Amino acid sequence: MKMIGVDVGGTFTDFVYSDMDRGSLAIHKVSTTPSDPSRGVMQGIVELCERNGVDPSEISYVLHGTTTATNAVLEGKGATCGMITNDGFRDIIHIGRHQRPEHYSIRQDIPWQARPLVRRRFRKTVPGRIVPPTGEELVPLDEEAVRRAARELHAEGVNSVAICFLFSFLNPAHENRAKELVQEEMPEAFVTTSSFISPQFREFERFTTAGLAAFIGPKVDRYIAHLDSALRDLGMTAELRIMASNGGVATPKMVVEKPALTLQSGLAAGVLGGAWIGAQDGRDRLITLDIGGTSADIGIIVDGRVTETDARSTSIAGFPLLMPMLDIHTIGAGGGSIAWQDRGGAFRVGPQSAGAEPGPAAYGRGGTLPTVTDANVVLGRLAPQDFLGGEMGLDVAAARQVIDALAKRLAMSSEEAAEGILTILNANMANAIRSRTVQKGIDPRGFALVAMGGAGPLHGAEVARMLSIPEILVPPSPGITSAMGLLTTDLKYDLARTQFQLSTRVDLERINADLASMETTLIRQFAEDHIPEEAIGFSRMADMRYQGQGYELNVPVPAGVLDAAALDVLWAHFHSAHEREYGHAFPGNPIEIVNLRSIARAELPKLGALAAAEGGSRAAAFERTVETVFRVGSGLESFKTSVYRRAALPVGEDIPGPAIVTQKDSTTVVPPDASFRQLPSGSLLITLGDLK
């Protein structure tokens, strides 16, 4: 079986081809085409097939991580969308909750108010009310009011509609009927409901999630349709699967229906790829640092399991998102990040990026602003003959020119300015990792850092040193690890049902009925994807809290029909989870089951273990010596640094730093007072010196 993984980044689009039967692997990179990412995707697939002598019709699966939805939200370039909601609740998605993003700032940016997904004039209200606790109808839905609202939205140029009613997670009848009416009045529009996207309590988060789906829905639909059509025109019969934020892949149909599934699509693939790399070398406590051209993405793997966000911590561009997502933290830090001075004269790096076009000055495409890539060139860590395996040149003079201009403004030497850029960028990433580890009671010193992405190996060792992490793993193909992660996952769907049941009075019949109903729905969904029931594996989770708390913990639910004994196991799981998370538990307190979740997986073919590295010799790998600049203590020093070709490195031999290791998709920097060796898996292990 032949498979291709495609990951679209801000600067480059990465490809990995795997022939599962032969155990062969090939990689490729092309520049991302921001105006239409599918052009770069198709260009890369064609080139990859040609280089490996593969007919496109032989490919069985194309697995794709896309940034289309994420970028639409980050850039505010989604659809003109409307909302239909209950009378009197027009402003739920504006008011939000009493928590402010920054409690003490009087000038803070509140995304849902500053950049509303649905403008107020496009939020229409209609009579009708579903009420708790069982979802009975208190006020019938005014169908004529719904039609009138739809006609008004259509006349105002709206092409996407979110239907969001109170308590629809208990009874979706009003939302479903309103959707039918809107589709009759606006047959060309994208229409979704909050109960379909996320049938859970918390109306602000649920309404905003539906609003996000409406905001990105038309763009995702067009992109997927265009890509699928282009694949067919190439003669491919491969199954297209799209990476979802929950760590699984979904069919194009599911993604079009629930576009919010893709809001961290490519990022999830990167964390999965990092977890897979660590597993090859027996490491299951990992911090993944995926640095591309525009952003740095951070994931945490504890005991082989990728951590997931809780319902109150999941967001995209500041907007709350009530959907299952891997816990991935993203900051604006990458090879294209621009160095600049703020109004107070402070030296900053990012989050603005030069992107793929024009890119850093060193790319020779007209970039005129100093970037991280330019700094690495000036410091001797990137050389023209090494970049992208020599397929893309670097303009050293242009890089030095923009760094010189910055240095002059800062009254520094060019080397001080360039090294300052790297130090600031690395500190930003180290602080971001602290926020996901130290601030959550996790000691990063007990982890290995997986440095991946095109720029991860350039910065990984210095970021690790700031965190006292002793080991850095650099994957065999770090620049395409996200694409490789796509080939390690399964088809995966999630469903949730809100419960609000106390441990002191549990309705077991209702719990078992809801679990069975969710599994039946998931079986039906997989049947539409031509997956038989016997190929599906199920797991269940519950969002639980002590009575009176406002935050839930995700706890595994025992398999099978639940009885009193199974509930005792569930309560024990929750007490243990609370102890781990907060350092204490209250065994005598009532526990509340807030949501039940059912997760279904169907296995896809996966990458096996990497072929053992053949290994060469240090002499064969050595290419030349270059002058590079590193910070030592409070000053800068120039070092004669050995440059090695990664493909010829020996296996198991410790090589001292400073060193630079080159390959097509990335460059690895080993600082002074560090050493590295190639492991049998093909990964590089960098070991830092004294971290006391």
UniProtKB/TrEMBL annotation:
This is Hydantoinase/oxoprolinase family protein. Residues 206-493 form the Hydantoinase A/oxoprolinase domain. InterPro entries: ACX-like_C (IPR049517), ATPase_NBD (IPR043129), Hydant_A_N (IPR008040), Hydantoinase_A (IPR002821), Oxoprolinase-like (IPR045079). It holds the Pfam family Hydant_A_N. GO terms for cellular component: cytosol. GO terms for biological process: glutathione metabolic process. GO terms for molecular function: 5-oxoprolinase (ATP-hydrolyzing) activity. Residues 4-185 form the Hydantoinase/oxoprolinase N-terminal domain. Residues 510-674 form the Acetophenone carboxylase-like C-terminal domain.
